[in-house]
UniProtKB/TrEMBL annotation:
<dbReference type="InterPro" id="IPR000085">
    <property type="entry name" value="RuvA"/>
</dbReference>
<keyword id="KW-0234">DNA repair</keyword>
<dbReference type="GO" id="GO:0006281">
    <property type="term" value="P:DNA repair"/>
</dbReference>
<feature type="region of interest" description="Domain III">
    <location>
        <begin position="149"/>
        <end position="200"/>
    </location>
</feature>
<feature type="domain" description="Helix-hairpin-helix DNA-binding motif class 1">
    <location>
        <begin position="108"/>
        <end position="127"/>
    </location>
</feature>
<keyword id="KW-0963">Cytoplasm</keyword>
<dbReference type="Pfam" id="PF01330">
    <property type="entry name" value="RuvA_N"/>
</dbReference>
<dbReference type="GO" id="GO:0009378">
    <property type="term" value="F:four-way junction helicase activity"/>
</dbReference>
<dbReference type="InterPro" id="IPR013849">
    <property type="entry name" value="DNA_helicase_Holl-junc_RuvA_I"/>
</dbReference>
<comment type="function">
    <text>The RuvA-RuvB-RuvC complex processes Holliday junction (HJ) DNA during genetic recombination and DNA repair, while the RuvA-RuvB complex plays an important role in the rescue of blocked DNA replication forks via replication fork reversal (RFR). RuvA specifically binds to HJ cruciform DNA, conferring on it an open structure. The RuvB hexamer acts as an ATP-dependent pump, pulling dsDNA into and through the RuvAB complex. HJ branch migration allows RuvC to scan DNA until it finds its consensus sequence, where it cleaves and resolves the cruciform DNA.</text>
</comment>
<dbReference type="GO" id="GO:0000400">
    <property type="term" value="F:four-way junction DNA binding"/>
</dbReference>
<dbReference type="InterPro" id="IPR036267">
    <property type="entry name" value="RuvA_C_sf"/>
</dbReference>
<feature type="domain" description="Helix-hairpin-helix DNA-binding motif class 1">
    <location>
        <begin position="73"/>
        <end position="92"/>
    </location>
</feature>
<protein>
    <recommendedName>
        <fullName>Holliday junction branch migration complex subunit RuvA</fullName>
    </recommendedName>
</protein>
<dbReference type="GO" id="GO:0009379">
    <property type="term" value="C:Holliday junction helicase complex"/>
</dbReference>
<dbReference type="GO" id="GO:0006310">
    <property type="term" value="P:DNA recombination"/>
</dbReference>
<keyword id="KW-0378">Hydrolase</keyword>
Amino acid sequence: MIAYIKGKLMAIQDEAIIVETTGGIGYELLCPNPFYYQHQLEEEVMIQTYHHVREDAQLLYGFKNEDEKYLFTKLISVSGIGPKGALGIMSAVDIPSFVTAVENEDEKFLTQFPGVGKKTARQIILDLKGKLTSSFSITPTEAEDIQRTDEAALTEAKEALRALGYTEKELTSIMPALRKENLTNSDEIVRKGLALLLQS
């Protein structure tokens, strides 16, 4: 198993990054949000990896830390969620909020993620409830106290930002930060979103 890869970040693609290690070997790492690493281009990076082997391919998935990697491994253990689906969820996930939703059986929150319908949301809750809090240091009591940005307002704000010409990848990259803001008004979310986009 390849636990991590350390080397020079050579390229950023739509779904992956290329890291060159000693000896001139370039590894393609599929990532939840490759553009997270855009400020590290041409620099040395260390990426946590998950090596997925199947009959027709061997794929490497890359993550910025152990928490992301662990959540990915738990997601692919859920019935009906494969690596591609897990990566889609990871691209927009805020880990504390996700754990909160699982512990509180918040299906509405979970169905906002790409490819997650009510059936899959229910399966995530059935398979993962009680299995995440110890790993991420969030107890059910603490989870109840975590406040999140209103999801309906967030969706409305996302559409408004998309209408301004921002791409899905750009919008996905700021979703975790916006969810932590505890905003309820779509106009406020748009303003905060614009500020984050200008910083990136």
